[in-house]
Amino acid sequence: MPEHTPERRGDATSSSIEAVLQEIALEARQRKADGEMTDNLEDELAALFTGLAPIGTKRWFFEAARVHFDSATRGYQGILSGLRDLAGAIGSPVQPAAEPPRATVASRTVDRLFKVVAAARVDARVEHLAKEVAAFASTSVRTLEVIEQRLGYVDEALRLLGERIEEDNDGGRSLNSLARHLEHRLPPEDLEACSGTVVETFSNAGGKVLHGDCADGRIVSSMMAAGVDAYGVDPRVEAAYSAMRRGAPVRIGAVLDHLASLGDAALGGLFLSGSIDRGSSACQLRLLELSSQALCGGATLALAVTEPSRLPEEHRDGAFAELLDWSPKTPGTWEEMIAYAGFVDVRVLALPASGGSTRSNTAEMAPVAEMAPAAGMAPATRVRPSHLLLAVRSRVA
Amino acid sequence: MSDSHSTAGSAGSAAALDGSAGSAAALDARALHQFVPMLIANDAVGGHTLDVQRLARAAGLASKIFVDTINGEEPAEVHHFSAYADLAGPGDVLVYQLAVASPMVEMLCSRDEPLVVNYHNITPPDAFAPWDYVAVLDQTRARDELVRLATRASGGLAASHFNEAELIDAGYRHTAVLPVLLDLGRNDEQVDTPTMEHLTLLKKAGGSDWLFVGRLAPNKGQDRLIRALYVHRKLYDPDARLHLVGREVSPAYAEAIRRYVDVLGLAGCIEIVADLTAAELSAYYRSADVYVCLSEHEGFGAPLLEAFDASLPVVAYAAGVIPEMLGPAGMRLGSAAPTDVATAIARLLRDERLRASLIARGHERLREIDMPGARDRTLSTLLSLASR
What we know:
A: 397 residues; alpha/beta; Rossmann fold; 7-stranded mixed β-sheet; B: 388 residues; 2 domains; 7-stranded parallel β-sheet; 6-stranded parallel β-sheet; 15 helices; 13 strands; globular
């Protein structure tokens, strides 16, 4: 673009324009001084427009999420230390009561095993929850309340489980009975609608395929049946029991931690469900970034998510704002987050809505239903994800 | 190979990289294909892309346009960028029209044909932060792509020295400056009659007509224009009108603008229109009394040149590329404060000598920019950059 030609000697126009601009500035000041406008009119006009902007969750969301995660991670250590102490107290051995005359050696063993398993589950769960909730410093008060609620849920669960096992009608305590009762703690998620697509997607994966938050391992099993080298990670001990019965390898732990422990390009595929959809926004972004690092170039990431309108009413935030922590996100936002984390060719597949959320009224679920009010949750409600997102890890760093 | 950039102030910047015939021969160029995220009718980048295609074909080069989004309303034949792999041939030169983020960058980076980035500037993400976080993400990604392409592209063509500086900062070793190709010189026969009649009818009620052409987006400052009109009507001309021409790109900002107009009681004197034909847009330029631009960021400012072409005096806030585009041809304001703008326009409208001077300066500025000459040099400049 050519620069403007220098002012010609004798041309009064340019200097006239400059003089005009000075006169304009003077006139503008004079108008204000003469009281033709209120002192604050310009500011009020600007403030009026600023007030029409959307309420602030959209400001620098992704960068803010990163900042929160980094600072919260530093604060997490202190929280985790306290929670571990609490978990230890919950899981500490109970003074043995006098055994009934009919008690057998086997029943004492199961009793101890139950306590150990419960303590381990509590510890793992609390650690997982602590990491999840510690990712946003600004909502620390609420997170502590939720932690307290969830610990109360766990405590109540232990008590009811103990009572349930004693009421077992199979003539004694057994590992199967224990496992069956522990399954009631599984996440209320129904992945049936996307199971086939997930298996097909990873059928040609060039490496190990991980299902993060795999719950009872049924999708891991299905992938293995299709010849995929698959495994799962889930923070719930009961997941390990259920998966073991299916012959599916499952590691106990938080998906976030597991991905961080993997080397770059360690996975040939990754399927995320469960807490990916219900975690804090900062955690979700961090999870996507770790997924990008863990996957090989060209490998597929699949996410099962539930759009806000498909969640049961009690799971929706009363002041719904998509970018608030724990708020469900629309597929469009997930699409953007996935692309931001370095994935390409993002596809959004709508899953069948039939069935939606259902409540189980079986007798087996009764103890869980009893616990729900104490925890402020409705764990008996099963939620079916509304969308499956597929994306490809970019081949270029 | 040493870097080469345009020489600031030289009217024929491409001359530094000329030797077009030699460049094309060295390249054995047989086709010049362009990649643009979307091809939009009556859009500066879209019009420029079509112009480049015409130039390429006139020079005997095959030329296709590839996009990442096809909506069926394109003004010319387009192909999805994923189809290029099957259509690629020896002697292909690729030009990427960069203004927004696009998944086609990944594909372009995976190819090895000579590539030139024709840079139209990327709106700073800051502008969208209060309004649209998806746009913040898009603009951030676009800037990342600009840098990423620096090592892939043979060179970058910018529409202004302001834009060229960003290319150099991003790491482009070879750059040149040529304006966006615009279809100027529309005569009165190309003005849409019904639109002109509508605007003439409004004029009969008295009051001045302000015009701004640009997407309804935060960086374009339509809210500033509304405040300036409010103050101008209060202090100088209670019948003044504002015409905003541009399509909506930020729904939250557009909604806020409409509510703002309502809240301030300006619904009867602010018109917001979009998707005009060239003839309808000409009617707005011909009918207006002043072209006002209070943008915080403009990539090129094509409407300023269109205003000069329509003999319209220009009042503009001096931000971004505006000072370079205006030169001495417009009233360049150091402040976008409503009272300053309102007073400047009032002065312009009552000072016939000032008005005539600005109009004459606008015509002279168009001669300096030399759109026909730029059109002649565009193809050779692109080929020259591709040969680097």
